[in-house]
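stage 2 :: seqdesign
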């Protein structure tokens, strides 16, 4: 293997797989902070540039859900004998968060591999054929 030149050794090596995606300039305030927290909470290679719009929508949905929850906390879920409109907003925001979280592989369910899930934790149920086979092999 040839030796590296001094110039090659002095040049900085940038690992692009370790560069995190940046929030869009249009995203401001709490939604921007949520975006950064989400991106910082996972491995740098987890997201790609094409994921930015989905992360942006996810961040805005979380911000909207928090705002709706705060309004419900101050005004109440029922106003004048009718459900507050914030209840519907909160419900739709939660649905968005759940769907986008799965799509972005941020939820535990979206991260696990179904093929190997539970293979190390499953024990045969009492009275099952697998349990009977284990007893007979002893």
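stage 2 :: out
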């Amino acid at each position: 293997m040839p030796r590296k030149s001094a110039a090659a050794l002095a040049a900085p090596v940038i690992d692009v797989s370790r560069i995190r995606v940046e929030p869009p300039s249009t995203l401001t305030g709490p939604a921007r902070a949520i975006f950064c927290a989400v991106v910082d909470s996972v491995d740098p290679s987890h997201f790609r540039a094409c994921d930015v719009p989905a992360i942006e929508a996810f961040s805005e949905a979380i911000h909207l859900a928090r705002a709706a929850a705060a309004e419900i906390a101050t005004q109440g879920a029922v106003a004048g004998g009718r459900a507050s409109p914030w209840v519907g907003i909160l419900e739709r925001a939660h649905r968005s968060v759940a769907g986008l979280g799965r799509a972005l592989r941020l939820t535990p369910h979206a991260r696990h591999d179904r093929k190997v899930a539970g293979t190390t934790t499953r024990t045969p149920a009492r009275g099952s054929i697998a349990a009977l086979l284990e007893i007979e092999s002893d």
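stage 3 :: structure notes
- The radius of gyration is 25 Å.
- Residues 28 and 82 are 34 Å apart (CA to CA).
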